[in-house]
Structures are given as structure tokens and as C-alpha cells.
Write a structure and sequence with these properties.
Elements lengths: L2 E9 L2 H14 L6 E2 L6 E11 H12 L6 E5 L1 E5 L4 E5 L5 H16 L13 E5 L14 E5 L1 E10 L2 E11 L7
Antiparallel strand pairs: 1-3, 1-9, 2-7, 4-8, 5-6, 6-7, 9-10
The structure holds ligand 3AM.
């Protein structure tokens, strides 16, 4: 049976990925860390780890039954976690819909044997990895907003020194206005 490394995440619109890459290049020193490729910028909802095809199917079925409205995400916060070496972008106030969605997916994953971190969920988009030295963060005042209208399951593979994410499935989060 094939095993895949999987995670649920929010995709970012391609234009936003490009804007963030530009902003990152403008505001972080070259040696600050290893930049995540534009196409790989995402917001993880639940990391599943290495799972069987059967577990993947079960979790996809549960994901397809989630009925939840979309939400708006304000990216207006950034930070540095020196221990994992991550520089991230996030929100000063996470929308309730985001927290609910992540909480549900994480609970379903845990019930299917995918161990979840004991750390509280801190929604973030990883901009740089291997950032273990002190990093100068840009002053507050930046702000991107986008409407989240779906979430997705991704596989992660690493080969020839590159991480590749592939979207396996996507589920809608309908507009809350019903439009
Ligand atoms: O959103 P980010 O980039 O922080 O760090 C990995 C990435 O999250 C995380 O899953 C996302 C897709 O790879 N990840 C990798 N291994 C992990 C683990 N053992 C993990 N998250 C929790 N536990």
C-alpha cells in the first residue's frame, strides 16, 4: 500500500504568492534563511505525516462533508521562531472560521492515528526556513487580505534537493453571503 506525506492547507492565490515573494526579497537579508518557493507558500491547517492510502481516503471523505462558510484572512503579522528556524507571516487576529476549520481537521486526523502537535495552532505562512540566527523583522504596517473560499489536501515529496507540494483534492468553503 502506498504511503504519502500529506497535509491539509489553504492555498494562496498566485498573484499573492508573487507579492509576498517580492516583499520578502525587499525586507529580508539574503542570508536570513532559505526562501520557500512562491508556489509552495501555503497556510497549513493540519499536518498528517506519512499516511496510508486507506487513511487518506477516510480523511478525504470526512473533509468532503465539512460545511463551513469561507472567511477573510488578514495577513498583517510576521514573526520568527528561532528553534525550528521559521520566519512566518500570519494574522494578528485569526478569523474564527480558520480556527474552526483547522480544529476540525486536526481532530479528525488525530482520530485516524495522525499524531497532532501539542502546541496550540498558530496559523502562519512559512516564508523562510533554516532561519536559526537572529532575523530583523520588517516593521508592522504591511497588510494583505484575501477571501478564503476553499481548502485542500496536499502531498509533499522531497527529491533532488527540492520540496514539491501537489494538490490532491480541494473542497469549497461557500461564501457566507450565499452569493
Ligand atoms: O506551514 P509550515 O510550512 O509550517 O513545517 C511543515 C509545513 O508547515 C509541516 O507541514 C507543512 C507541510 O510540510 N510539518 C512537517 N513535518 C511536521 C511535523 N512532524 C510538520 N508539522 C508538524 N509535525
Amino acid at each position: 500500500m502506498s504511503i504519502q506525506r500529506l497535509f491539509f492547507a489553504l492555498e494562496l492565490p498566485a498573484p499573492l504568492q508573487q507579492q509576498l515573494v517580492q516583499w520578502r526579497a525587499d525586507h529580508f537579508a539574503e542570508g536570513a534563511g532559505k526562501p520557500v518557493a512562491a508556489a509552495n507558500l501555503h497556510l497549513t491547517l493540519a499536518f498528517l505525516g506519512d499516511v496510508s492510502a486507506e487513511t487518506s481516503q477516510q480523511l478525504q471523505q470526512l473533509a468532503s462533508r465539512i460545511i463551513q462558510p469561507g472567511f477573510s484572512l488578514d495577513l498583517d503579522d510576521a514573526g520568527h521562531w528561532p528553534r525550528p528556524g521559521v520566519v512566518w507571516l500570519g494574522c494578528q487576529r485569526a478569523p474564527r472560521g480558520l480556527l474552526q476549520l483547522a480544529s476540525l481537521l486536526r481532530a479528525q486526523a488525530a482520530r485516524h492515528g495522525c499524531a497532532q502537535s501539542a502546541q496550540p495552532f498558530h496559523p502562519h505562512i512559512t516564508l523562510l526556513r533554516h532561519a536559526t540566527q537572529k532575523v530583523a523583522l520588517p516593521p508592522r504596517g504591511f497588510h494583505w487580505q484575501y477571501d478564503v473560499s476553499d481548502f485542500a489536501l496536499f502531498s509533499s515529496t522531497f527529491s533532488q534537493g527540492r520540496t514539491r507540494y501537489r494538490r490532491l483534492a480541494r473542497w469549497p468553503l461557500p461564501s457566507s453571503s450565499g452569493a
